[in-house]
Amino acid sequence: MKTRITYFVHGSTPGNKKCVATSWENPGLSELCQKQALQLKGLIKTKFDAVFCSDLKRAVQTTMIALTKTPIADKRLRECNYGDLSGKK
User: Fold this and answer.
1) What mean pLDDT do residues 57-75 have?
2) Those residues with Cβ within 8 angstroms of residue 15's Cβ, 6 or more apart along the chain or in another chain
3) Rounded to two decimals, what is the model's pTM?
4) Range of 38's domain?
């Protein structure tokens, strides 16, 4: 059996516009990111058997919009943690 993995990233966060390091901060999607997720949805022609993402809101929300599928959210898939720099410019 052949396994194919496709990787997507979430779009812009509210912190991107403010030049803030989002890291493990957990904001929802910005309006721009919601639009980006909808654009991604229009580009995807593949049906996925399983979808995995980080447990952070922005990753789960992006998956729900773009793939119209409830993901298996896992903390181990988070992006890097900026530690004390999280939430700062």
Assistant:
1) 90
2) 21, 22, 25, 27, 87
3) 0.82
4) 19-85
